[in-house]
Structure formats: structure tokens, C-alpha cells
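Checked the freezer inventory, then went back to the computational side. Two predictions to log before the end of the day. The first one is the construct we discussed on Monday; recording sequence and C-alpha cells without edits.
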Amino acid sequence: MKRATPANRFLEPTALMRIRSLELRARIVVEGFRNGLHRSPYHGFSAEFSEYRQYVPGDDIRHVDWRVYARSDRYYVKKYEDETNLRCQLLVDGSRSMAYGSNPELTKHRYAATLAATLAYFLTGQGDAVGVTRFDDHIRDYLPPRNRPGHLRRLMLSLEQEPEGRATDIGAAIERVAQMHDRRGLFILFSDLLAPLGELKRELGLLRARGNEVVVFRVLDRRELDFDFNDSARFTDLESGRDHFIDPGRARADYLERFHAHEIELRQICQQGGIELIVTPTDLSLDLALYDFLSSRSRRGPDPGRSRANLRRAK
């Protein structure tokens, strides 16, 4: 993970969450990411999601961005509007389990909403259409992919809503959203995925079968990954409301065994379905989460079934 410096300390999740405005948080992450593209750890990285592309002979030099040239010593031209027509739908889990955070200021839901807002801000800024779906055991809010004045603000207002439901029904939400989309696009799911995976496999497979690209961000608190609790305590199931008195020393081995078995099943589902899975702890710097996403897409390349509406590469 990148060390905190005066330039990036505001991108650390705990500090970032102190900013009340979700849109401002997203803007800070995106601008920090862009400023870091020409410095480690982004040196040499090709960001497919970019509002610029590298200059090629024949391009009109009037479109060269000389400020970017001054920072990177490379020529970039701003992309024309018809070069980006990606349609992206963000699916954000708002079930009660997402309200958990070992740091109350940094819950899984706040992190997921901020990451979703960051991608929305990034994509909207380059002319792509972005929508959002908030769900728990049913769809709470749905905004279709658009890029028009005022739409980004509506996305931010939706993402600012706190988790409302108890149970999670990811499969039903994905199925309903798939029915509402008759054009291929990119679907990005943000969830802790702490639920049975049977329906998820079927519904994600349905999205892929219709020619969509699918990315899954699994957002987890660090303590859910390593079960780093020391003292016996009462644990409350946020979705069922039931209390359990647990001795972590005795329960850790069984918990980690079950957790890893669930993770293996999830990875197999995603690998077999051609789905990108990115496990994102809530203590991961938001610009690095964005980097992980763009880097994975750069390695995979565009989906074979898609046209040049796929995202352009800029070095």
C-alpha cells in the first residue's frame, strides 16, 4: 500500500470520510489519482478510463492538452464526445450488514458508496453514461445510465442514503436490473457478499450471457478478513438482530475456515463466468482501489463482443 504523504494523506479512507459531501470526496479521489498517474505507483500505467488519449500523427494539434504535456512530457489530445459511449450501472448493496465497521466512521457502506461515487464522477467527466441501483432484499432506488446536466448530482444524493434493509437478495436485484437494460454495458456490483452464492452465480451469469461486462467489488472490513478480535464479547447479527456471545480465541479457526471456503466458491463463480472480482478492504486508500479497477481492466483488455465503445487507452 502507498505510504501516506502530504500529497495523498487526504485519500486515506478514515480522513476522507470526515468530508461530509460525497461528491467532494469523489472529486478529491479522482483528482488525486490523476495527479499521481505520472508518479509511483502509477508510472507507466495505461488507464483505459481516461478523458485523454495519446497523440497520434494526423491528430489536430489544437486538441493537444499542453498542461498535461507539461506534467508528463507526453502529448495527449482530448477525446471527442463520440469516442466514449460506455453505459455503466452501479449496483450498491444497502443491506444492514453493510453498516458494519470496526471504525464507526468507516463502515462498509460508506466506503462502497464513496467508491461508487468516485467511479461515477470519473466516468461522467469523460462523457460516459452512469446509473445507480441501491438494493437490499429489494430495489430501493434506481437511476438509469445517463450523462446530462444534473444527473451526477442525483446519483450522489442516491448514494448518500444510509442502509435501510436487513436481509440481502442480490440475485433478485440483479435479475430486475437486467430486465430493465436492453443495451449492453458495464455492471459494477459493490457488496460484502456475505450471503449464499447460488442465486448470485445464476444472475451474474445472466448478465454475462447478454453480452455485458461485470465487475464485482467485494467490500469488507479488515476484521472480517482476519477476525482480529481478542476479548470475549457479544456479537450482534446486523441482519437478523440476534445476539451471540463469542470467545474469539475458540471461534477464530472455524470462522476463517468457513470464510475462506466461501471466498474460494466466490472466486470460482467469477472465474468461470468471466467476471472480474476485486476484494477491497475498507482500509485501502480510495485512489488505490480505483487503480486496482483500472489496472485489472487494462490487463484483461476489452470484451471481445464489444465495439470501439470500449474504453480508450492512454499511456
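The second is the one RB wanted added to the comparison set:
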Amino acid sequence: MADVRSAVAWYIEVFGFVEHVRIGDRHRSQLGLPDGPPAELVVAEVRPGRRTPENERSHQVMLKVADVARVVETAVARGARLVDPPHDWEYGERQAAIDDPFGHQWVLNQTLTDVAPEQWGGNTVTPRAPSP
């Protein structure tokens, strides 16, 4: 990534990440979500021998958020490009996709309701344990 510090600031402002560790001014930062399960996002500079971005995308990052419409509005106001506007799906999720100013595509996901996979054409393989 060409500008680690700018990307980190953007991810903090738009997605609500917190910065846990900074390694050098431009080399790498470790981010996490303040109130979520233990998770980590590492933002790092492009270095020799690492995969560099190309015209074709190799992946999307999916991020669960509390309010897709609000995050999309914030992201677009700060330079993201809306790829796919918020849409509600039959499986109980609201999703939208954006390209951030640093070349990454994010699929934002909000759970609206818990819908059994059999209700929309899926199959339950191993049921999830109920939430405490």
C-alpha cells in the first residue's frame, strides 16, 4: 500500500477501527474493532516480493457493520466509490460494495434478521450454537 498512514486514518474514520500497533511511519499498522470479537486488520506497505495490486482484483474484504447505509454515506463522503448500493437479500442481510481510495473493495454486510437457509434455498449443514 502506497500510503499506510492515510489508509489507517481512513479505516479508523470510516469503519471505526482502532490502531493497536504502529511499526515505523509507513511500514505497517495493526488495527482492530473496539467492541467486536478479537480480530485484526493489518495495513502494510507494498514491499519487494509481496503481491502488488493489479487491474484484476484478487479478493474483496467483507466487513459486518451495524448500519450499511450510514457507513456507505461516510465512505463516499471521504472518497470511496459506490460499486453496489445497499440491497436487502432474502437471506436476511443488507449489503453494499465500495472501492476505498486505496484500491480495496469492501462488501459491507448488515444482519437484518436471522433466516433459516432452507427458507431461501440453502441447506443447514452444522447448526450454529445459540448466542449466549
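For RB: Strands lie at 18-23, 28-32, 41-44, 61-64, 81-88, 93-99, 105-111. The first strand starts at residue 18 and ends at 23. Let me know if you want it refolded.
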